[in-house]
Amino acid sequence: MSQPFRRAAGGRIDRSRTLTFHFEGRAYEAHPGDTLSSALLANGVRVVARGPYTGRPRGTYGIGAEEPNAFVQVDSGPGEPMVRATQLEVYDGLVARSLAGKGSLGEEPDDSRYDKTWAHCDVLVVGAGPAGLAAAHAAGVTGARVILADERPEPGGDLLGGRAHLDGRPAMDWVTDLRARLAGLPEVRVLPRTTVTGAYDGNFLVAVQRRTEHLGPAAPAHVARQRLWHIRAGQVVLATGAHERPILFPDNDRPGVMLAAAAAGYAWRYGVLPGRRAVVAGAHDGALWAAVDLVDAGVELAAVLDARHLAGGQAHRALRDRGVVVAAGHGVVGTDADADGVLTAAWVAPVDGDGQARRIACDLLATSGGWNPAVHLYSQAGGRPRWSDDHAAFVPGDPLPAVACVGAAAGTFDLADALAEGAEAGWQAAAATHGGGGEEPLPPATDSVASAGAPAACWITARADSPPETIFVDLQRDATLRDVRRAVGAGMRASEHVKRFTTAGTAADQGRTTGVTTVGVLAGLLGLPVGAVGTTTYRPPYAPISFALLAGRDRGRLLDPERRTPMHERHEADGAVFENVGQWKRPWYYPAPGEDLDQAVLRECRAAREGVAMMDVSTLGKIDLRGPDVGEFLDRVYTNRFSTLRVGQCRYGVMCRADGMVFDDGVTARLAPDRYHMTTTTGNAAAVLDWLDEWLQTEWPDLRVSATSVTDQWAAVAVVGPGSREVLRRLAPSLDVSAEAFPFLTVRDATVAGIPARVFRISFTGELSYEINVPAWYGLALWDAVAEAGRPAGITPYGTETMHVLRAEKGFIVAGQDTDGTVTPHDAGLGWAVSTVKPFIGGRSLARPDTARNDRKRLVGLLPADPSVVLAEGAQLVVDADAPTPVPMLGHVTSSYRSAALGRSFALALVAGGLTHRGETLQAVDGGQAHPVVVTEPVFYDAEGARRDG
Amino acid sequence: MLSVPCPWCGPRDETEFRYGGQAHVAYPADPAACSDAEWAGYLFMRDNPKGWFAERWFHSAGCRRWFNAVRHTVTYEFAAVYAPFTQPPGVPS
């Protein structure tokens, strides 16, 4: 028979439609509105998962976010590991299987869409149970912007399928009315299936909205599967409810053992009998009311146990009316199971002393030790929960600014009180941010229930000789009482330590079911009050978030912006291999057919040194500096002087941080008396602009200077090599390119290939070279014109690798590669560029005792003894690699290449003592192998600088 | 995520800003006149109070202007924001 445990009527399911799903390879039927848990229970499937370490069978234990057992692997759709069956809405075609502790990611990439949104509101209400609904309504009627987020498919919380009455009608009628009223308020947004997972500074909350998962294959492809909400709220009302906690006893992990209110919830919310013959064991009135709900749903009550010695409350009377007598002062001390490990009986005994235990056959053991207010978000927001003996629970402690806790989340379990508290908090929150207005709505009327007495803090019922390894403290981690005892035996007293030692509370449910129970057990072992032990810290996320959602659309090509120069398409056509430099795509090398990197670079290097070559240098950082005080400003910013630069001249400059360490370098030109053009390292352009702005705004606002990034406004081509002058002459016939008229380190405005251009005669290679800058939209035209003009001379495009070889042969550093924030200009061999007369940022630091040491790491050249060995950049330098450890480190390799001009490998390095080691042989250690290297000057090629004039 | 009250743009998410450390630590007018200890003090030594703290912020992804703020290092509450080279307005004690 299909769905043998389905009740004949009732529940918030659509019985007119039948769905088919598969679990563990078998087909079952369910109805829309079912979760996988309710559907499995309806079909009599008790074993859902297994203990991760013990392999013991486990069944559905809870009914929502608190579930510790029933995690499944979903194989349909994009697939998902570790899904709570209690929250997984069944759809037609759902395929799931049981898990033992952990799931697995699918092999196929998930091509579902995930997105993110940002929202602001006056009042964010978390949780749409009775208190949250009342709060959202009271805030919404004022006209305030309200967001109401709830993790379930529909609002109502514990009223869903429940039997409470409000205003004399079934409570769900009130919920339906309220939903309609909220829908009529244009500033109120209700987000179902939305879990608020984190509360951060300044009332910034993050929520996960599950938009299409419940639709299965019917989900429209254009709608994001999940959406991440970033919500900035003026006021937050936490109506997050409470989590039911169990009482622990031997063999408390068997399928058939379930939380009591959860069991009753299955009967009434889903129309499913969680068992046919039940033992109910509790320590508070809620457990007794769950027993009433179970018996009214048709479950036979074999026994109702209350650890408290109480009688006479309203719940007792209700049970007596149904022919059930509560066994006061009794608890469960063990369970029996069949061959499959499924519950068949409970052993029951008085909780005090070691009275005779009695065996009671049952297929459902419903346990409830009380309710733990869901204080997670309150705690994340900075609150500290406090233990309350009255509640036998941790409740919110001191109030937080702009955050209110209401209803069960605040320990207010009475329905009438929770409704009033929610309405008042919503009203006050709206008044605080929005100003309020209108008339405060009255909460619905309901009967208060006379309690039998306060709940008891009852953690374990067991016999003195019960084996502690059968008493499971954390079902999802298979952690037992024995583990907690061992932790205490090892000297631990703090709940944080015990959590880490036992792993109790570290699983996907983060101790929602038994975290507080663990604290209670620990307090008992230590002989301390529970409040003195305290909870572990609740950290975000409250519920797991998938990486796919956190990535959202920022994946693949959208992960990071890609910056391309105007010549990019030509580089692609020329077969360039690209490398990433920051966000820029730069040609790395241009392999001819059959060439590898080494061969291409040797060819490109030869062209630049012996003929003519060209490079796209558009990515270089460029900053336009204007104002009468730019010269003075640059004198302070650079280690060398720029105020004396004549119009039309360029100069290489080094910048230091205040601590005297090299920050950036580049060539800066004076275009007019009050205008300079600064260039920076490609990857440092934004940082340099920030640096200039910082000094101008926060230290020297009297200097009349403005700094503007013009990196993207200019495209630039470097024409390099002995043949470059001839190429430029052809391109710019009206420009006198002779060495006398256009000397090294000058800049000229000219028309190049018919394009207005600014030509710099500068060199990063040591060869005669020109950098032609044109407005960016002419970049491609310029590149093509240069290539055409150079064709007779065999002009060769080259990439960043060749650029690095050529500059390293000349001993030119790259800031950030040969320097690392601990290198002064003197360390980098740039002492010649440091003024000894004018002050500059960092100048004073160069006289600090530490920066003036002569055993600092300084730039040197290295020649490997084996000229075919290209050292690894980062390789450590030592005197003797076989010395006893720790081997003293002298320094490391910063740049290393194979040189066409030298016909061998070479490197730059930072070495303690620098050139005092000149001529010595050190060892460069890489991957366990030591390569002998000779220390040399860091300039390997044309030390006289004869070649730059062509 | 802090909500930083930029004095020019209004409240914006922290990710739009760069933090600039303690405010009112002026670059010495004549660094060369500083002793090594005084210069090291300027370079490396900053207050680290538990409580109200005057600090610098830069709205790097917004108006690109620097400003000072008084913020509580425990609660992260901003008490005031004000222009560089001005003194903080009344600060809670």
Automatic annotation (TrEMBL), chain A:
Location relative to the cell: Cytoplasm
Enzyme Commission identifier(s): 1.5.3.24
UniProt cofactor note: Binds 1 NAD(+) per subunit.
Domain FAD/NAD(P)-binding: from-to ranges: 122-382
Domain Aminomethyltransferase C-terminal: 857-942
Keyword Magnesium: no
Gene3D superfamilies: 2Fe-2S iron-sulphur cluster binding domain, sarcosine oxidase, alpha subunit, N-terminal domain, FAD/NAD(P)-binding domain, Probable tRNA modification gtpase trme, domain 1
Catalytic reactions on record: sarcosine + (6S)-5,6,7,8-tetrahydrofolate + O2 = (6R)-5,10-methylene-5,6,7,8-tetrahydrofolate + glycine + H2O2
SoxA A3 domain segment(s): 472-553
Cofactor(s) listed: NAD(+)
Domain GCVT N-terminal: 567-837
Keyword annotations: Cytoplasm, NAD, Nucleotide-binding, Oxidoreductase
Keyword Coiled coil: no
Pfam families attached to this UniProt entry: Fer2_4 (PF13510), GCV_T (PF01571), GCV_T_C (PF08669), Pyr_redox_2 (PF07992), SO_alpha_A3 (PF17806)
Recorded family membership: Belongs to the GcvT family.
PANTHER family: AMINOMETHYLTRANSFERASE (PTHR43757), AMINOMETHYLTRANSFERASE, MITOCHONDRIAL (PTHR43757:SF2)
Protein name: Sarcosine oxidase subunit alpha
Species name: Asanoa iriomotensis
Species classification: Bacteria, Bacillati, Actinomycetota, Actinomycetes, Micromonosporales
UniProtKB/TrEMBL annotation, chain B:
Gene3D superfamilies associated with the record: Folate-binding superfamily (3.30.2270.10)
A Pfam family assignment: SoxD
Top-level taxonomic group: Bacteria
InterPro entries per UniProt: SoxD, SoxD_sf
Protein name, UniProt field: Sarcosine oxidase subunit delta
Organism: Asanoa iriomotensis
